[in-house]
Each structure stands twice: as C-alpha cells, then as structure tokens.
Design brief:
The complex is a heterodimer of chains A (265) and B (264). Chain A contains twelve helices and no strands. The radius of gyration of chain A is 18 Å and the shape is globular. Chain A has helices at residues 5-29, 33-41, 43-53, 57-75, 83-104, 112-117, 125-154, 156-161, 166-188, 193-205, 211-236, 240-264. In chain A, helix 2 (33-41) packs antiparallel against helix 10. With 265 residues, chain A is an all-alpha fold. Chain A has one domain: ABC transporter involved in vitamin B12 uptake, BtuC (Orthogonal Bundle), CATH 1.10.3470. In chain B, strand 8 (190-195) and strand 9 form a beta hairpin. Chain B has helices at 43-51, 86-90, 98-107, 123-136, 153-170, 181-185, 204-208, 211-217, 219-223, 257-261; strands at residues 3-14, 17-28, 32-36, 58-63, 69-72, 141-145, 173-178, 190-195, 197-202, 234-236, 242-244. In chain B, helix 3 (98-107) packs across helix 4 (123-136). Chain B has a six-stranded mixed sheet, sandwiched between helices. Chain B has a single domain (3-68, 139-261), classed as Rossmann fold, CATH 3.40.50. Chain B has 264 residues and is α/β, with parallel strands linked by helices. Chain B has ten helices and eleven strands. The chains are: A mainly alpha (265), B alpha/beta (264). The interface between A and B is medium-sized, with 25 and 24 residues.
Chain lengths: 265, 264
C-alpha cells in the first residue's frame, strides 16, 4: 500500500495535519503567527546548511529552526527590542543568509520551488517515518504540558507565580514548532507552513467549547484539508502544497458560514 | 499573629534608574496591608518581588516556609480565540475536585458563571472568578494587584466587601495594591504609601493625614475624605451637561466624587 505515492502523500499530509492542528491552536491563542512565519523563513538556511554539512535536510531544518527559536526565546528576556522587531531581524537575515550560502553550493542542483511550496507527491518511506516520529513526539510533549501551557497562555505571570516554569514552557513550545516546521516542509513548503497551523485552528474555533475540543477539531479539519487538497491536485493538475492550503481556506470559509448559522439558532 | 512575610531593605535598580529603595514590609495572618502610590512608584515591581517573580538587588525577603500564595493579577484580557469556560479555567494548571471548584465559586458568588466563557465575562465578574481561582489553592496570603481596575464604583465596593469577608472567614493575610486609599480604607489594617521608598505607613486614617501622603497625592485627596458622604442625583455627559440618574429601588450607596471621577 505504501508503494502508492498517493497513499504516501496522504499519510504524510495527515501526519503533519494531526500535529499542526493542536499546535496551531497555541499559535492562534498566543498570537504567534508571526513567530511561526519567521521560523519557517529560517528553514531555508537549515536546508543550505544541511547540504553543506551533508546531513539529512530535515535534521538541518529542525536544528536551524530550533536554534533560531531558542535565540528568540532568550532574546525576549531582554526588553530593549520588541519581539516582532527581533523576529523580523532574525527571520529575514536567516532567509538571506540561506540564499547567499546556497549560491556557494551552486554546482548542486536544488529544487528550490520544492522547498518553498512543498512536494508532497515525492514523499519517500523514510520521509514518512520522519514525519510520524517527529509528529508523535510533538503531540506527546503537548499532552504532557497541556494544562501548564494553557495557564501560561492565559497569563504568564499568574502561571509563574503559581510555580509553573514559564520560560521552560515557552522554549518547549518553540522547539515543538521548530520540529513541526521541519516535518511539514515536505508537505506544503516553507512559505505555506504557517497556514497549516493557523487555518484549521481558526476554522475549529467556532465549533469548540473547550481548548481540547478545539485542538482535536483542528487536527481533524487539517486531515480533511489534506485529503481534499490532494484530490483536487490530482483532478485539476494543480501543485499539491498550495492545493492543500486552498482546501484549508475553503474549510475556514465554510466554518464562518456554519458559525453564522449556529449563532442564528 | 504569626508573620507570613517579612521584607527588609528591598532595593532594585534598573540601568541607572532607581525603582525601589530600602523598602520594608510585613504581613501577618489575618492582616490586610494596602500598598498605595502613584503610577511609576514601583508598586507592581514590589509586588513581583514579593511574589518571587523578580529578584531584588538589595535587601532580603523572608517568607514563612511553605507559604501558599493566592495571586489575583491586574485585570487581564483573555483572547476570544481561546474557548475556555470558568470551570475549565479554575482547573489550570491542575485538575481540581468538582466539590472544591463549586465551593470556591459559591464563596465569590459566581456559581452561575461556571459554564460561561471566560473571555465574555465582565471586569467585575472576572475579578471574582480570579479570586475564586486563588481561593481554590487555600492561600495563607492573598495578593491582589489593583483588583478594582475597570470596575464601576458599586462593583468596587462589593469586591472589597468580598475580600474583607474572605479574610474574616479564612483568616488569611491580604496584600492589596491600589491607587485609591478611600476605597480600601474600611477594610485595611495597614497602609503603605510607596513612591520608590516608603513615604509613610500606618493605619489608614493616619496615613491620609500624613504630610508625605498629601505631598504625593495632593491636598484634594485628603480633603476628599471630608466629603466622603456624598450622593449623586446626576452624572455628566461627555460635554459636561448634567444627566439625571435613573431612580433606583435600593438606597443610594456612598459615593466619593474625587475618587470616582479622577484618577489623581
């Protein structure tokens, strides 16, 4: 069954969606969309470094994103520069550095478009393994820290006063985001990863009565978007990554309409 | 009465700005201490130090060992993107037995809001929910940072009465931060007037007549006590025109023009 590239593509996309849903909820709740975006921009540097050091590219991306995430997390402790300025500096510098470094490995043929917008139909068995292992560990971490993460999301000081290790929580969340970006890169590409985090979570909001409901619903909607996107991509011969994102967008718009109906009742 | 917390000579400097200088503060069981001071006087920083959120660079802080603190932070806004009911909010970061949750909600008279979404609560309701949440941990010391901010006058009176009742029922110490002495006077044992250092401290009546207090808040603040018993039959619209207040069935409450209309 895994020999079929479409099955592999769906399993890979679904694996990413299952993680991106719950994690995306935190991105929405904590207003970290810009952070996610910045982190994914720095992924290109990771790809280049992976090439130069001849290590697995996803490992390169995960390590680079984690380093940038940690850097941001620690720099947030100082209060000279606001977080969004910091992110802007780091993200775009990393992107530019990535492109410059890439020109040094000019003799290597690199499918830049594939990394920017994803190439889910080229997912291999080992990619699939990576995605599910990475995804499962992110979900495990989220489950363990769930209530503490929620309290820190509501109010960091309150959490801190009650003995929650807020800095550790924040860094953990950033690291899980880094891992998610690394595994999602193949599916929707660097430029569209944030949408996989945000769209399903935003679509789930209207129907959720609790944080847990929203997380599960977002995961489910993400999987549906992957299915619809792949089917659409096959039917209309469109690029798969963007098609998945468009499907997620359609689900979000439907949720707005559904939410409006729900309110009228 | 046993000492809950003892701070001696607390000082903090950020860059070349002195935030706090040689501050002493004690709180004992069953005692209500109010910290007042103008904006930028270091009230919140002192509170953060006492809570252990920040380290002072001078002085020492002694807490009774194993002291449990219930913290009610300054008015906070919860993102409407987070679907969270009051009951769920009370169970963060640890699950709590339902009986305890119900009891805490009853104690602060918000049991009817148990299933309500937290982001939809009004300022006064949310403060009560935060208080219920703090009580859930059976605190020996209750710390409230400007609990009355953004709440209308009657709501403020109710809230302070509630805090007083909690103190009496539970015998816990209370540390309040306020920028309004009059509101908290009735329920306060000790007032500490802060402006980077302790300007004056003592019983509320004494502090309100203290020259340092008047210097800090202006003579109007002290005078306002004299017109404490003051009842409005009108309010003013944005252009200053008087608007009659609707007649209420319940007797008018005490109001205080200086504190209700001016932030000092």
């Amino acid at each position: 069954m895994l020999d079929d590239f479409l099955v592999r593509a769906f399993l890979a996309g679904a694996g990413v969606a299952l993680v991106a849903g719950p994690l995306g909820c935190f991105v929405v709740w904590r207003r970290m969309a810009y952070f996610g975006d910045s982190l994914s921009h720095s992924a290109l540097l990771g790809i280049t470094l992976g090439f130069l050091l001849q290590v697995d590219l996803q490992l390169g991306v995960a390590a680079t994103c984690a380093a940038v995430a940690l850097l941001v997390g620690l720099l947030q402790q100082q209060q000279r520069l606001p977080t969004d300025t910091l992110l802007g500096i780091l993200a775009h510098s990393a992107l530019a550095l990535g492109l410059v470094a890439l020109s040094f490995v000019g003799n290597l043929r690199l499918d830049l478009m594939g990394y920017l917008f994803g190439d889910v139909l080229a997912v291999s068995r080992s990619d699939l393994l990576w995605i599910w292992i990475g995804g499962a560990s992110v979900l495990l971490v989220l489950t363990i820290y769930w209530r503490r993460l929620l309290l820190a999301t509501v109010h960091e000081e309150l959490a801190s006063a009650e003995g929650v290790a807020v800095l550790r929580i924040r860094l953990t969340l950033m690291l899980t985001l880094a891992v998610t970006i690394a595994v999602a890169m193949k599916i929707v590409g660097i430029l569209l990863i944030t949408s996989m985090l945000i769209l399903p979570a935003a679509a789930a909001r209207r129907f959720a009565r609790s944080p847990e409901e929203m997380a599960i619903l977002a995961a489910g909607l993400g999987v549906v978007a992957v299915g619809l996107g792949l089917a659409g991509s096959l039917r209309y011969d469109t690029p798969s990554g963007p098609s998945i994102v468009v499907a997620a967008l359609l689900l979000f718009i439907l949720s707005l309409a559904g939410g409006a109906l729900k309110w009228r009742k | 009465m046993s000492r809950l917390l003892e701070a001696r000579g607390i000082g903090l400097t950020r860059g070349d700005r002195v935030i706090l200088e040689n501050v002493d503060l004690d709180i004992s069981e069953g005692e209500v201490v109010t910290l007042i001071g103008p904006n930028g006087s270091g009230k919140t920083t002192l509170l953060r130090i006492l809570l252990g959120l920040e380290r002072p660079d001078a002085g020492n802080l002694h807490r009774r060992s194993g002291l449990t603190i219930g913290y009610v932070p300054q008015r906070l806004t919860i993102s409407p993107t987070l679907p969270l009911s009051t009951r769920q909010f009370l169970q963060l970061p640890h699950r709590q037995p339902q009986g305890k949750v119900e009891q805490a909600l009853r104690e602060t008279a918000v049991e009817h809001l148990a299933e309500a979404q937290v982001h939809a609560l009004s300022g006064g309701e949310f403060q009560r929910v935060l208080l219920a949440r703090a009580l859930l941990h059976e605190p020996e010391l209750l710390v409230l940072d400007e609990p009355a901010q953004g709440i209308d006058f009657n709501g403020q009176l109710d809230l302070y009465q509630l805090i007083d009742r909690v103190r009496q029922d539970r015998g816990c110490g209370v540390l309040l931060v306020s920028h309004d002495l009059h509101l908290v006077m009735a329920a306060t044992d000790q007032v500490i007037c802060l402006n980077r250092h302790v300007c004056c401290s003592g019983e509320p009546e004494a502090v309100s007549q203290h020259p340092a207090y008047m210097a800090l808040f202006g003579p109007r603040a002290a005078q306002a006590l004299a017109i404490y018993q003051h009842h409005h039959d009108h309010r003013h619209d944005i252009a200053g025109e008087p608007i009659p207040l609707r007649q209420r069935n319940n007797p008018p409450r005490l109001r205080n023009e200086a504190s209700a209309d001016e932030p000092f």
